[in-house]
């Protein structure tokens, strides 16, 4: 498993080569989006947000947003350290936090959650190639992290591990006692 510094160094070194892959299809805008997404995915939305890590510290005072995420997931669990699922869960968590904050601050003039969702749909229709590039960049940096950690099979989340251990407990069969006839003379079992 690589250290936090190793993860950061690899993310910084590979952001530009990854981004240049997008030049033929999307030009300079695609390169900028791919590089930015790769850096954000590796440095701020790292799979290590489930621990007290460099990625968590980079959020500064906003690292409190990740406290419930860290409490619900054990480090290197299936939900945080797996391809596609880990990145999707972190993005969904972040979107949920933004929607809750906007709902709470709506009386102060922030857009309502339905309005934010509508704007998100409009952005998706208008900039689909660049948004897909951003999602691929986030996921690529996550894969880099997982490859450095050597995580071919992440651990199950705590709750599922507890449930699976309980199931195993129920599957256990009690030991069978072997009843042997005792000798009437000695009182010992025959054998």
Which structural class matches the secondary elements? mainly alpha
Rg from C-alpha positions? 26 Å
How many domains, in number, for the residues?
1
Low-confidence parts: none
Q: Count all strands and give the number.
A: 0
Shape: globular
How helix-rich are the residues, as a percent range? 55-70%
Discrete helix count:
8
Q: Main sheet?
A: none
- Beta fraction of the residues? under 5%
> How far is the N terminus from the C terminus?
55 Å
Look at the structure and give the mean pLDDT: 79
Query: Could you state the order of secondary-structure elements as H and E?
Result: HHHHHHHH
Give a summary of the structure in a few sentences.
By secondary structure, this protein is mostly helical. The chain is built from 8 helices and no strands.
Structure, explained:
- By secondary structure, the chain is mainly α.
- The protein has one domain.
- It has eight helices and no strands.
- It has helices at residues 4-20, 23-43, 54-58, 67-72, 85-104, 113-126, 128-149, 158-171.
- Helix 1 (4-20) runs antiparallel to helix 2, helix 1 (4-20) runs antiparallel to helix 7 (128-149) and helix 2 (23-43) crosses helix 7 (128-149).
- The longest helix is centred in the C-terminal third of the chain and has 22 residues, at 128-149.
- The model has no long low-confidence stretch (mean pLDDT 79).
